[in-house]
Design brief:
By secondary structure, the chain is of the alpha/beta class. The chain has 15 helices and 19 strands.
C-alpha cells in the first residue's frame, strides 16, 4: 500500500495500539529547556522515577537567558531561578546540559540541527511548540506539554492519536527578494491561523526542493502558526549534505546504512492525504503581517482587507493602530528584531549582513541581531558579519530567544512598532503593548535602513 512520508516514520515508531484509536509512539530524541521542564522533573522526583533513557534527552537554556553580559549572574530573579533549576535537575537525573556559557548553548531548535542531533526519519519532541522546525529533515517533530515532558522522561514514549495529513505544494521559482519566510506567511494568510488544525503538513513541490536546509527549517518552524501539529519535508541530497560530517551525525559504515534508509523516506506515488493545497511560487511577494496572529498577513504592496465586521478583527487592528484598506508600505517603524528559532541561523545573518554592508540604519530605528546559538555567533564573528552589522548600527547580541517572546530584558516598548523575523505577533508577545509586524530577514534589514517598511524587491 502506498504510504506518505509521515506514515512511514509514524509506523516505524509505533510500539503498540491501544483503545480509542491511540498509539504508543517511541520518541528518538527529547529536547528540554528551562521553562517547561521543572514541573516534569518534580513529578519524577515525587514518584522516585529515574529518567528512563537520559542519553536520549538534551537540555539547553534559551528562553530566559539574557543576550548581554552572559558571563554575569542573571539579574531577573525568575529567569535566574529557572536556569539554575534546569542545571540542578540535569545534574540530579544525569541529563546532558548545554547551559549558559557552554560553547554549544543556544535556542533548542537551532542547536539540534547544527550539531547533527536532528536527522531524517526521527521522532523528536520538546516542551515548545516550534519543535516542528526539525521536520525539515523528514522527521516527525512536535511540541508537547509539561505532563508529556514527564511521560517522555519516564518512558521514552507517548500515547498519541494519529493526526490527519495535509500536503501543501509550491511549484515554480521564487521572485528575487522572496524568501522561505514569505512562503510560509503566504500559506498561513491563505489558510488562516486555524487552517491546519488537526493536521500534520508535508511541504512539497519544486519551490520547496530548491530551498536550503535553513530555509526549510523556517517553513516547518511556522507550521504551528496555522494550527498544525507539525510540518515536514522529504529528505533529499540537500538534507544529506547538510547532515554529513556534523558532530553527532553517523560516521563510516553507520553513515552508509543511515543514508540507505533515509533515501526511502518520501511519499509514495498514489499515497493519499486528507487535504491538499497547491500554489505557484510566482504568486508570492514579500510578506508582512498587519494584525495579532500570523494569519493576518499580506503582500507588502497589498492593502489591509476588510474584516466584515468581525469583533476580533477590529480588536486586532485597534491594537495595531491600523485600519482597513491601507497599505503598510512606507509605514514608520521604531524597532527591528532579527533572531528567534525562525530566523537566527548563519544563513539569515549572512543575508542581512550582505544587504546592510556599507549602509547605516535610519536614525529612528533601534535594531538588534541575536544569533540562535553560540556556534552561530562564533561563525558570524569568524566571517566578520558582526563587524558589518555593528558598523551599520545593529546591536549584535549573544545567543538566546531574546525579543521573540520578551521573557528576558529584550522587550519592545508599548505602542512601538517592531518588524520582527520571529514567528508570532500576538498581543504583548514582544512586551506589553508592543506592536509586532512579522517579515523576512531581508524585509527586516530593508526596514532598518529605511526607517519604514519598504518593498525589498526595489533593491534587488
Amino acid at each position: 500500500m502506498a504510504k506518505t512520508l509521515f506514515d512511514k516514520v509514524w509506523d516505524a515508531h509505533t510500539v503498540a495500539e491501544v483503545e480509542g484509536g491511540m498509539s504508543v509512539v517511541y520518541i528518538d530524541q527529547h529536547l528540554i529547556h528551562e521553562v517547561t521542564s521543572p514541573q516534569a522533573f518534580d513529578g519524577l522526583r515525587a514518584r522516585s522515577i529515574p529518567v528512563f533513557r537520559p542519553e536520549r534527552t538534551l537540555a539547553t537554556a534559551d528562553h530566559n537567558v539574557p543576550t548581554k553580559d552572559q558571563h554575569l549572574p542573571i539579574k531577573e530573579e525568575l529567569s535566574r531561578f529557572q536556569v539554575q533549576k534546569l542545571k540542578d535537575n540535569c545534574d540530579e537525573f544525569g541529563v546532558t546540559l548545554y547551559g549558559l556559557g557552554h560553547p554549544k548553548q543556544g535556542i533548542v531548535h537551532v542547536i539540534g540541527p547544527e550539531l547533527g542531533i536532528t536527522k531524517p526519519g526521527m521522532t523528536i519532541v520538546c516542551g515548545d511548540s516550534h519543535t516542528s522546525t526539525h521536520g525539515a529533515f523528514g522527521s516527525i517533530a512536535f511540541g508537547i506539554g509539561t505532563s508529556q515532558v514527564e511521560q517522555v522522561l519516564a518512558t521514552q514514549c507517548l500515547i498519541l492519536q494519529k493526526p490527519k495529513q495535509m500536503r501543501i505544494t509550491i511549484e515554480g521559482e521564487l521572485s528575487p527578494g522572496v524568501l522561505s519566510k514569505d512562503i510560509v506567511l503566504f500559506i498561513i494568510s491563505k489558510l488562516t491561523a486555524a487552517g491546519g488544525t488537526g493536521f500534520f503538513i508535508e511541504y512539497a513541490g519544486s519551490a520547496i526542493r530548491s530551498l536550503s536546509m535553513e530555509a526549510r527549517m523556517t517553513i516547518c518552524n511556522m507550521s504551528i502558526e496555522m494550527g498544525a501539529r507539525g510540518g515536514l519535508i522529504a529528505p533529499d541530497q540537500t538534507t544529506f549534505d547538510y547532515v554529513e560530517g556534523r558532530e553527532q551525525a553517523p560516521q563510516g559504515d553507520d553513515w552508509t546504512k543511515s543514508l540507505e534508509h533515509w533515501k526511502t523516506l518520501y511519499t509514495d506515488e498514489g499515497a493519499s492525504f486528507d487535504e491538499e493545497h497547491r500554489w505557484d511560487a510566482s504568486e508570492i511577494e514579500p510578506m508582512v503581517t498587519y494584525g495579532t496572529n500570523p494569519g493576518m498577513g499580506m503582500g507588502v504592496t497589498e492593502s489591509i482587507p476588510e474584516g466584515g465586521g468581525s469583533a476580533s478583527f477590529e480588536k486586532a487592528l485597534s491594537y495595531m493602530g491600523l485600519s482597513e484598506g491601507r497599505t503598510l508600505e512606507n509605514h514608520p517603524v521604531q524597532y527591528v528584531f532579527i533572531g528567534s528559532c525562525t530566523n537566527s541561523r548563519i544563513e539569515d545573518l549572512r543575508l542581512v549582513a550582505d544587504f546592510v554592508k556599507g549602509k547605516k540604519i535610519a536614525s529612528n530605528i533601534s535594531a538588534m541581531v541575536v544569533p540562535g546559538s553560540q556556534q552561530v555567533s562564533k561563525q558570524a564573528q569568524e566571517e566578520g558579519l558582526d563587524k558589518i552589522l555593528s558598523a551599520a548600527g545593529f546591536d549584535f547580541r549573544e545567543a538566546g530567544c531574546s525579543a521573540c517572546l520578551g521573557m528576558n530584558e529584550d522587550k519592545i516598548p508599548a505602542g512601538a512598532y517592531c518588524v520582527s523575523t520571529s514567528n508570532r505577533n500576538f498581543e504583548g508577545r514582544q512586551g506589553p503593548g508592543a506592536r509586532t509586524i512579522l517579515a523576512s530577514p531581508l524585509m527586516a534589514a530593508a526596514t532598518a535602513i529605511e526607517g519604514k517598511i519598504v518593498d525589498v524587491r526595489k533593491y534587488m
